[in-house]
Amino acid sequence: MFYWVMKNVLVGPWLRLAFRPWTKGVENIPSSGPAILASNHLAVIDSFVLPLVLDRQVQFLGKSDYFTGGGVRGRMVAGFMRGVGTIPVDRSGGKASEAALRTGLRVLDEGDLFGIYPEGTRSPDGRLYRGKTGVARLALESGAPVIPVAMVGTDVAQPLGRSIPKPMPIGIVIGEPLDFSRYRGMEGDRFVLRSVTDEIMYAILRLSDQEYADVYAATMKARLAAAAQHPEQPQDPAPGS
């Protein structure tokens, strides 16, 4: 109920007015049953804009920081995230990340839509980065189709470091479902997981027309941070390095 109120009464109308979202391929979202929406990740607002154009509710993973902020603003953000179905995930990895994946499987087992950003974090420069294999595990363990999604222009509306996005048209391109049932039962094979993940990322790449960087986004962010702290030391941020 709170999700419906947020989307259609309190927040959604304002977001539609500000971003005037245009869409392509919405018919690829099934009217019922589980599906994984695998999207590129350019800005915080990605998780707010995509649900606006869907008839069904979609639940995303969100970094745990959104749920632990202090003060009135922190509580409001946490309440909003819970209200729209965002699932907190600890980026420290290990058991915490495993628990997040289990939660995703629960969402899919209940026949709902689950949204995930295979890059693991926002792109630092607008390129599409190497996907992490968690999305492949979800697909193979659940048997749910993977629907590639490309957010277009959200990084222009809300570049890194900008908390309040500027109003402008934003696009959402949704591709045809990908079926990985041929790999069912092989979720323990890391080579299969990498192959499935790469296929998903290539589908997103075709939709988004981004430049591809064959390195993890978190690795690139670390390189850029190191270069900023030590500008006197040459840094080579090339994807293949």
TrEMBL record:
GO CC terms in record: plasma membrane
InterPro entries per record: Plipid/glycerol_acylTrfase
Any single biological process term in GO: phosphatidic acid biosynthetic process
Transmembrane segments: none
CDD domains tied to this protein: LPLAT_AGPAT-like
Lineage of the organism: Bacteria, Bacillati, Actinomycetota, Actinomycetes, Micrococcales
Domain Phospholipid/glycerol acyltransferase: 35-154
Keyword field contains Glycosyltransferase: no
Keywords, sorted A to Z: Acyltransferase, Transferase
Protein name: 1-acyl-sn-glycerol-3-phosphate acyltransferase
GO molecular function: 1-acylglycerol-3-phosphate O-acyltransferase activity
